[in-house]
From TrEMBL:
Sequence similarity: Belongs to the BCAP29/BCAP31 family.
Recorded topology in the membrane: Multi-pass membrane protein
Name of the protein described by the UniProt record: Endoplasmic reticulum transmembrane protein
Record field: transmembrane: 6-25, 37-57, 92-110
Domain of life: Eukaryota
Record organism: Escallonia herrerae
Keyword Endoplasmic reticulum: yes
UniProt entry tagged with the keyword Transferase: no
Keywords: Endoplasmic reticulum, ER-Golgi transport, Membrane, Protein transport, Transmembrane, Transmembrane helix, Transport
Domain BAP29/BAP31 transmembrane: 1-122
InterPro entries associated with the record: BAP29/BAP31, BAP29/BAP31_N
């Protein structure tokens, strides 16, 4: 069960590194190559959106059907286990949301950069005329 969360953690870390690379200032040639490479990577990595969505649905279902430990019947160990599972679920929700948000940010950054490039080419053509 923890394998899916490790995969999601690595994907979020990779997305954060890509977002950092896109936002760092760099020469125009390097930035152009980087954006084209990341754009090629973005298309197959869209799998992260449905994967995160299904993980969120799984978390919601587990939260709705979780046994409550709120009475005098619970021992301290059971209460600790219950609280630990709640914290893990909250962490995993943040992980899923950040995966989707980072993917969207990277996509928009690449799209904006490509639009800027095309506008610069149009401006250059008009200046040459």
């Amino acid at each position: 069960m923890a394998l899916q969360w490790m995969i999601l953690t690595y994907v979020v870390a990779a997305e954060a590194a890509l977002a950092l690379l896109l936002t760092l200032p760099s020469p125009k040639v390097v930035k152009t190559r980087l954006v084209s490479l990341i754009s090629l990577i973005l298309q197959p990595s869209i799998f992260i959106l449905p994967f995160s969505g299904f993980q969120l649905l799984d978390l919601y279902w587990k939260n709705e059907h979780r046994l409550m430990c709120t009475g005098e019947i619970c021992t301290a160990a059971e209460r600790d286990r219950y609280e630990k599972s709640i914290y893990k679920a909250q962490r995993n929700v943040i992980l899923c949301a950040s995966a989707c948000l980072l993917y969207w940010c990277i996509y928009r950054l690449c799209k904006y950069y490509k639009e800027i490039q095309s506008l610069e080419e149009v401006e250059k053509r008009y200046k040459d005329q």
